[in-house]
């Protein structure tokens, strides 16, 4: 390998070869690429996995993490994603605890630090993969390929395809999985450190490597594939298997194959058995934990896997592989989501995109032939290990063993990209060795490093906010309905309903069965009083997905607004049937009953809402107001006090209870609550107006006049306040005349 490594001496100066400086350079490069994302927001999947994940909060028992999936749902649930990553969730929980809440900076800093750690570890891993495994008499490992290992680690550190894993907080699963994957591999290498005798090993380090592989799997599922890489490394580097020689002997029917020396030397078969049993045991436990079997995905998540034709499935799977290879080769067009029509299905061999499949397999077959049949043993080893590192970690995402919930995902390329960087480095070394234009090769390598660094910086900026992230995808995947949906949702959250409607309509046009886009569009149209179209959209959504509880509830709200009360009640009941714990639906059902003067039913519905969600302020308020309006002041007061015990800082509850207390002539207590509500929201006209009414009744006329005037200054159109203020002024004038 020394000859191959020396061919890069014009690219990597000798001053950077000492281990400390090599690792420092790689770590620094990784920080430069992704430091821009440190103060970004929680974006895209971060909301579900972190902000809305109850497993991060202190009130959730730690033991629940071992029974929940990555998103906080119970693994036994049929709706669970089955992504079992308890150690990753545990680090999120530690982040939440140490930073005192959901502060994105601390989460992003940990991600950046983890990526830098992975990059630094890869310097050691690449030195083994390129240079082989040799130790000094003191047990210190020799780095026989310092230039190659440094260049490959630099290429990995600055690869833009890693941005999703580093800048997106949920990418921590891939970062942690990769970290323990590499530690497992290096631990396996240490099994051969104790002695230089051929065929001997330390069983402790082999077992520790298997344990670290299990830890990697508890961070991200593909972590378990390290056991496969360890096996290939053992066979090729430790066992020194020569496939070319075996093929030749088979062709010559050589009897020496009957007693392979590789196994006779002892150790290899035992280690393979340990790896196989360890991997099978871990996978069995993982399968048992999943409970109800593999997750259920929809056609929009992975359309190729739902194709009836085996040929169509095979063609599209291979096309997806070629797209992943292109992202590694040219990571310029990156997107946060590649589903929902972003990559149209190939339905016949006449599609021009089949050329990409042919190109991929032409390259792979060429590399495999060189890896197996080259006369150069170093070349065989490096190409085989590089292909192993590229392919083995990618296998869980390949659709070969089970259906996955995506078409293309940049995050799953985090580990495989190490194999790509290794092959690319070997290619540069080979080019440099066989050409005299070494400066041109050096310029090419430096150009790639510079452009990739620049792309990382730009892409990290796009991941800092959802607005930039979603809009960046419009030019990459204009056919992706989810991209338009997310842009629309972001605009709606900012109050720009007109623009949001445009993007929601485009999402529905691109995917006529996109029920979530229909639901959100129907909601906006409902708020704009375009009730007929809203009803049509929501009716279509529940027709496509009959168990879509939120759409049923929203359809009920629209039908209530259209005075179709019986249909609205049926829609609410259907929503509750599909989602039993649905406090918002009970709240809206209560409003329907209140409109129909079914007061007992309304109170029961709102009570159900508060039982399911004790902090449901609107339900509490409506109960207080209904009891107040129907003359049940004592009951209204009891409900108000109960609500304030649960939500002591809710100013609207203070206001409602203050009104009840005022009518019960408990003026002092009522005044205190009004003043607390005004302190919380000093510019609410009704708070001042009702306090003025209290003072008016109480006989504190000057204070009443003061708050009437403040209320009218805040809302000059309030007719009731005007009328009461007029009455007060006439009373004050009469009092003045009497005094005169």
From TrEMBL:
> Keywords, A to Z?
Endoplasmic reticulum, Glycoprotein, Membrane, Repeat, TPR repeat, Transferase, Transmembrane, Transmembrane helix
Q: Which GO terms describe its biological process?
A: endoplasmic reticulum unfolded protein response
**Mainly localized where?**
endoplasmic reticulum
EC number(s) given by UniProt: 2.4.1.109
User: Which GO molecular function, any one, fits this protein according to its record?
Assistant: dolichyl-phosphate-mannose-protein mannosyltransferase activity
Pathway(s) of this molecule: Protein modification; protein glycosylation
Family under the similarity heading: Belongs to the TMTC family.
**Protein name, entry field:** Protein O-mannosyl-transferase TMTC4
Q: Which gene encodes it?
A: TMTC4
């Amino acid at each position: 390998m020394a000859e191959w490594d020396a061919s890069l001496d014009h690219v990597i100066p000798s001053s950077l070869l000492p281990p400390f400086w090599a690792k420092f350079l790689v770590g620094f490069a990784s920080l430069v690429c992704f430091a821009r994302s440190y103060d970004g927001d929680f974006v895209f999947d971060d909301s579900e996995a972190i902000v809305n994940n109850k497993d991060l909060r202190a009130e959730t028992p730690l033991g629940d993490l071992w029974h929940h999936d990555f998103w906080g749902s119970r693994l036994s649930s049929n709706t669970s994603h089955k992504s079992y990553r308890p150690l990753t969730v545990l680090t999120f929980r530690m982040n939440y605890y140490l930073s005192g809440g959901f502060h994105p900076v601390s989460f992003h800093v940990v991600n950046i630090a983890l990526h830098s750690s992975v990059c630094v570890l890869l310097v050691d891993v690449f030195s083994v993969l390129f240079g082989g495994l040799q130790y000094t008499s003191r047990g210190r490992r020799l780095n026989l390929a310092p230039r190659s290992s440094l260049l490959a680690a630099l290429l990995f550190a600055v690869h833009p395809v890693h941005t999703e894993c580093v800048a997106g907080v949920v990418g921590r699963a891939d970062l942690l999985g990769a970290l323990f994957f590499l530690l497992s591999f290096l631990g396996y290498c240490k099994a051969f450190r104790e002695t230089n005798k051929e065929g001997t090993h330390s069983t402790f380090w082999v077992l520790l490597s298997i344990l670290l592989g299990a830890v990697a799997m508890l961070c991200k599922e593909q972590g378990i594939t390290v056991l496969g890489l360890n096996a290939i490394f053992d066979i090729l580097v430790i066992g020194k298997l020569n496939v070319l020689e075996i093929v030749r002997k088979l062709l010559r029917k050589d009897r020496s194959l009957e007693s392979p020396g590789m196994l006779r030397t002892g150790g290899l078969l035992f280690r393979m058995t340990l790896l196989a049993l360890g991997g099978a045991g871990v996978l069995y436990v993982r399968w048992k934990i999943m409970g109800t079997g593999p997750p259920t995905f929809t056609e929009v998540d992975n359309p190729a896997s739902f194709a009836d034709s085996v040929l169509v499935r095979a063609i599209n799977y291979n096309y997806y592989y070629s797209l992943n290879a292109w992202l590694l080769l040219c990571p310029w067009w990156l997107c946060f989501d590649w589903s929902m029509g972003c990559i149209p299905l190939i339905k016949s061999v006449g599609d021009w995109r089949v050329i990409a499949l042919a190109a991929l397999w032409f390259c792979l077959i060429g590399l495999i032939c060189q890896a197996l049949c080259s006369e150069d043993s170093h070349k065989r080893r490096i190409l085989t290990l590089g292909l192993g590192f590229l392919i083995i970690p990618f296998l869980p995402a390949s659709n070969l063993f089970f259906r996955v919930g995506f078409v293309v995902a940049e995050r799953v390329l985090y580990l495989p990209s190490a194999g790509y960087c290794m092959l690319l480095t070997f290619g540069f070394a080979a080019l440099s060795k066989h050409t005299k234009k070494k400066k041109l090769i050096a310029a090419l390598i430096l150009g790639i490093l510079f452009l990739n660094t620049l792309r990382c910086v730009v892409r990290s900026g796009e991941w800092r906010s959802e607005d930039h992230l979603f809009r960046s995808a419009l030019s990459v995947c204009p056919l992706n309905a989810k991209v338009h949906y997310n842009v629309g949702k972001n605009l709606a959250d900012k109050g720009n309903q007109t623009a949001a409607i445009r993007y929601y309509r485009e999402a529905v046009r691109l995917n006529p069965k996109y029920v979530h886009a229909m639901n959100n569009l129907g909601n906006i149209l409902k708020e704009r009083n375009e009730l007929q179209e809203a009803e049509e959209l929501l009716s279509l959504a529940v027709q496509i997905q009959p168990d879509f509880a939120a759409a049923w509830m929203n359809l009920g709200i629209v039908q209530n607004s259209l005075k179709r009360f019986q249909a609205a009640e049926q829609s609410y009941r259907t929503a509750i049937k599909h989602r039993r714990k649905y406090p918002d639906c009970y709240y809206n059902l209560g409003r329907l009953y209140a409109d129909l003067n079914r007061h007992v039913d309304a109170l029961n519905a709102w009570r159900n809402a508060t039982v399911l969600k004790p902090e449901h302020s609107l339900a509490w308020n409506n109960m207080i107001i209904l009891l107040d309006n129907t003359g049940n002041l004592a009951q209204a007061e009891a409900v108000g006090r109960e609500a304030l015990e649960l939500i002591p800082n809710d100013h609207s509850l203070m206001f409602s209870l203050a009104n009840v207390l005022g009518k019960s002539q408990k003026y002092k207590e009522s005044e205190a609550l009004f003043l607390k509500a005004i302190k919380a929201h000093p510019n609410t006209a009704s708070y001042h107006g009702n306090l003025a009414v209290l003072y008016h009744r109480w006989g504190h006329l000057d204070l009443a006049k003061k708050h009437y005037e403040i209320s009218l200054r805040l809302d000059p159109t309030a007719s009731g306040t005007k009328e009461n203020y007029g009455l007060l002024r006439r009373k004050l004038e009469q009092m003045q005349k009497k005094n005169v």
